[in-house]
């Protein structure tokens, strides 16, 4: 196994009797990445996460988290890995602060450092004025945010969130994802499983698409889209509606052009390479206008549909 990966699996497999929940999974996640697990219910996302955390023993294959085998050295793994399960459990009869104190103490933090860390975390997750309220009074979204504080309290190197935004409203979802993104900025490696494709697209550097225990595709949304939807082609949009024949001819003379189509208020150039800079130069030369080209982006939704035409989650 390679030390440069924070999370690595090789042919990781989990079988329940004859049923294979996770099937020869190969995963390599580097420091500071935000990696998204996507896929319909039952695809094997949670089972994979449980094996990464050492809560469930693999049937075969290898798994390393920060270089440790979670099945053999679960304590060393858990020391540096924060985990938020799909159904977060807090002590309902304790306040937000008391719950965080409890987790902090379990992780060996002393009362002195704990107090200031809890104060700042409750502030970060927007629960400062609810610090001393019983968790039983919390909404689902508030519990999710407290869950993030609970993950962050031990200042983990790796944070794993299983469906962190399920069942909360769009505003709560944004808050949770912003917090996760902020963790990533602090160099925490993040793994997140989710159904909310738009949201995942916003924060993930790479995604893995799971189906029936297998990771059927992985990569940045940009690369997956280009490979899957456009067969390596770039669609570059020039914000000019009608091209003069002269400009059109000049563009056609550029290398790798496949097609030029003008629509209502823009022109799309299909080509084999990203020739945005050259297009800008040509447009400037022919029209005297400095216009910014836009390379068409991909929607995770569209990529996902390629794999799950019938079984949308
Ligand atoms: N303890 C278990 N015993 C038997 N089957 C299980 C067990 N846990 C999970 N499974 C099955 O494994 C498959 C993958 O489940 P899971 O990892 O929870 O999927 P996901 O998180 O992607 O929705 C599902 O078909 C589920 O029913
Ligand atoms: Mg799950």
Commentary on this structure:
- This protein is α/β, with parallel strands linked by helices.
- It folds into two domains: 5-90 and 153-226, P-loop containing nucleotide triphosphate hydrolases (Rossmann fold), CATH 3.40.50.300; 233-295, RRM (RNA recognition motif) domain (Alpha-Beta Plaits), CATH 3.30.70.330.
- It is 36% helix and 25% strand.
- The chain has eleven helices and 13 strands.
- The protein has helices at 45-53, 74-80, 96-106, 111-124, 140-152, 170-185, 197-203, 221-228, 245-252, 276-287, 300-307; strands spanning 5-16, 19-30, 34-38, 60-65, 81-84, 158-162, 189-193, 206-211, 214-219, 234-238, 257-262, 267-271, 294-295.
- The strands form three sheets. The chain has a six-stranded mixed beta sheet with strand order 5-6-7-3-8-9, with helices on both faces. Strands 11-12-10-13 form a four-stranded antiparallel beta sheet, covered by helices on one side. A three-stranded antiparallel beta sheet has the order 2-1-4, with helices on one face.
- It is globular.
- The model has no long low-confidence stretch (mean pLDDT 91).
- The site of magnesium ion has 4 residues, from helix 1.
């Amino acid at each position: 196994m390679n030390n440069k990966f924070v999370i690595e699996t090789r042919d990781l497999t989990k079988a329940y009797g004859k049923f294979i929940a996770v099937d020869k999974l190969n995963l390599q996640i580097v420091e500071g990445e935000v990696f998204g697990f996507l896929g319909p219910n039952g695809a094997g996302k949670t089972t994979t996460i449980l094996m990464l955390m050492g809560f469930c023993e693999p049937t075969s294959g290898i798994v390393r988290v920060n270089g440790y085998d979670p099945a053999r050295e679960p304590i060393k793994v858990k020391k540096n890995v924060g985990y938020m399960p799909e159904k977060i459990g807090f002590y309902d009869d304790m306040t937000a602060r008391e719950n965080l104190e409890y987790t902090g103490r379990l992780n060996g933090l002393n009362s002195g450092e704990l107090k200031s860390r809890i104060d700042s975390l409750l502030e970060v997750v927007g629960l400062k004025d609810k610090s001393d309220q019983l968790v039983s009074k919390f909404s689902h979204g508030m519990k999710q945010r407290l869950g993030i504080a609970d993950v962050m309290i031990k200042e983990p190197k790796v944070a794993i969130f299983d469906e962190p935004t399920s069942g909360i409203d769009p505003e709560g979802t944004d808050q949770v994802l912003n917090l996760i993104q902020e963790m990533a900025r602090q160099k925490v490696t993040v793994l997140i499983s989710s159904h909310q494709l738009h949201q995942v697209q916003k924060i993930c550097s790479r995604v893995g698409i799971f189906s029936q225990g297998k990771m059927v595709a992985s990569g940045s949304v940009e690369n997956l889209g280009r490979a899957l939807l456009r067969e390596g082609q770039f669609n570059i949009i020039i914000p000019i509606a009608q091209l003069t024949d002269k400009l059109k001819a000049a563009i056609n003379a550029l290398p790798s052009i496949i097609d030029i189509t003008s629509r209502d208020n823009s022109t799309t150039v299909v080509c084999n390479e990203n020739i945005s800079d050259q297009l800008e130069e040509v447009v400037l030369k022919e029209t005297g206008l400095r216009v910014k080209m836009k390379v068409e982006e991909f929607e995770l939704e569209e990529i996902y549909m390629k794999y799950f035409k019938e079984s949308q989650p």
